[in-house]
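Supplementary notes for students who missed Thursday's class. We covered one full example, reproduced here. Read the sequence, then the structure, then the short commentary at the end.
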Amino acid sequence: MSKPELVHTIVDTLEEKKGEDILLLDLRGIAEFCDYFVICTGTSDRMLEALSDDLVRSIRKSHQIKGQAEGNGRDGWVLVDYGDVVVHLFSPDQRDYYALEELWEGGKALVHIQ
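Structure (token representation):
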């Protein structure tokens, strides 16, 4: 299993589960702690929790990798850590507030599903 296969499975899973404004950002050569960010918006606390749970379950089944989820939907930000791939699941307000796309604007957008 390669990283590109993993990130595309993550993006596909989030899209299937109705995640919104999904962005795959290539940070290789920019960030030392990971290679990719996947940023996605969920419209409610429940949706953020469902996206996180489904993603962890799907990736464990398809790639035999256990993701480490941190945060919860009530806070508006759930992070799922796959080592070189970090997934950020945001409420619309938290995504606007933290503006990771702007913070990491040097990264290359590989996929953007709106």
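Commentary. The domain at 3-106 is CATH 3.30.460.10 (Beta Polymerase; domain 2). The chain is about 40% helix and 30% strand. If anything here is unclear, bring it to office hours.
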